[in-house]
Amino acid sequence: MNIAMLDLRREYLYMKNNIDAAIERCLEHQSWILGPEVKEFEKKCAEFLGVKHCIGCSSGTDALVIALRAIAINNGKEFFTPDEEILTTPFTFTATGDAILRSGATPVFIDINPEDFNVSIDAVLRYLRLNGKKVKIILPVHLYGSPCSMDAISEIASSYNIFVVEDVAQAFGARWKDKKLGTIGHTGAFSFFPSKNLGGFGDGGMLSTNDDHLAEIMRTLTKHGGKDKYNVDHIGYNARLDTLQAAVLLAKMKYTDEFNSRRVMIARRYNEQLHEIKEIELPAIHEGSVFHQYTIRIKNGRRTRLQEFLKQKGIATMVYYPFCLHQMKVFQGRSKTFGNLSEAEKASREVLSIPIEPLMTEQEQHYVISSIKEFFLPNG
Fold first, then answer.
1. How many angstroms separate the CA atoms of 200 and 191, rounded?
2. Which residue in 234, 329, 370, 380 could disulfide with 225, CB within 3.0 to 4.6 Å?
3. Are residues 287 and 193 both part of a single domain?
């Protein structure tokens, strides 16, 4: 049996009629740049999230850059300066920190909570008490589809008069209490990379906000920096969402809640069946999580051996992420750290994501579970 982390072909076949019809409509109208599907997708996303504005863009990375740039422009400058800081987690994909550098600011990496891998609220507060005047933005990452503590983050940001930009790349459809992620901060940045909970047939991204002025700036930045591309106001980007990607995303979007529910169901089954293995730490089932990844922690340095064993069994696994951002060359001399970031570094040595394909069968999941048990409990 071969079990992939995500079976995109299986998902395509499940949605085939809707996707093929959506692509066919694009072939008929031939409006490839900012065609009708883009506007419709933005409208549907705004309704789904419960937010005033959604702006499609070319990738989740560009969404982050544009969100940060828009706040800099809102503050009266094209880019931040290196003495201005943005707080975020070091345990995330490179794009989060890279976007901060591209906005001109200095990333400050704050340690994580070991329970949910998200940024530590206590550590954020401690840093702000020492250096609050330098900080312009808190950038929480809803890692693996699990929500950060947005009440606390919002309260802190309000107290220090700083902005909140949510990195929702892995959490489309997830909630914090009664609010969808990406609608609680000043703006949210989403990715529609093919492997995401809502993924296209290539790169794509989106920005969300309730702020009319920020929305206007962000839309302008996706189109070279001006309402009139022949007479621009800001240093912008060619960062529009392709019509074809919007069409595919529209076709797939109607399955979002169903697929997110399937992911949670699979996560619950994993937790029920794997809890007896003492060398594994299982993820908590947080209310509102959409389980972009199901990520366990492997104790006693056995992660690599488990990966090799599962590979021999035909089961794919991934490590998200083997290196923290502050350990990467690109951030050396361009970032700051607060404390020793020991929890983030420990997570990078222990985490392992196992398959959570929404359409995987119970038989396939049982095979993954029994294989893991075979490795840790060879005598039953």
1. 9
2. 234
3. no
Q: Which domain holds residue 365?
A: 256-376
Instruction: Give me the mean pLDDT over the 311-322 stretch.
Output: 98
CB of 357 closer than 8 Å to CB of 14 = no
Q: For residues 248 and 297, state if they share a domain.
A: no
What CATH code is carried by the domain that includes residue 227? 3.40.640.10
- The SS3 call for residue 209 is strand
What pLDDT is attached to residue 380? 63
Closest CA to 253 of 43, 29, 31: 43
User: Radius of gyration (Cα) for the chain, nearest Å?
Assistant: 21
Q: What would the pLDDT profile of 208-232 be if each residue is shown by its tens digit?
A: 999 999 999 999 999 999 999 899 9
Side chain identity at residue 210, one-letter code: N
Give the count of domains, the chain.
2
pTM for the full predicted model: 0.97
In 99-167, DSSP assigns E strands to 106-109, 135-139, 163-167
CA distance 258 to 143: 20
DSSP string of 4-25? -S--HHHHHHHHHHHHHHHHHH
Q: Which of 206, 226, 231 is nearest to 216 (CA)?
A: 226
**pLDDT, position 132:** 87
Measured CA distances, 82 to 92, 102, 107, 140 (Å): 21, 11, 9, 20
Name the burial class of residue 65, with classes exposed (0-12), middle (13-18) and buried (19+) by CB atoms within 10 angstroms of its CB.
buried
Sign of dihedral through CA atoms 260, 266, 271, 277?
Answer: negative
**CB of 14 closer than 8 Å to CB of 251:** no
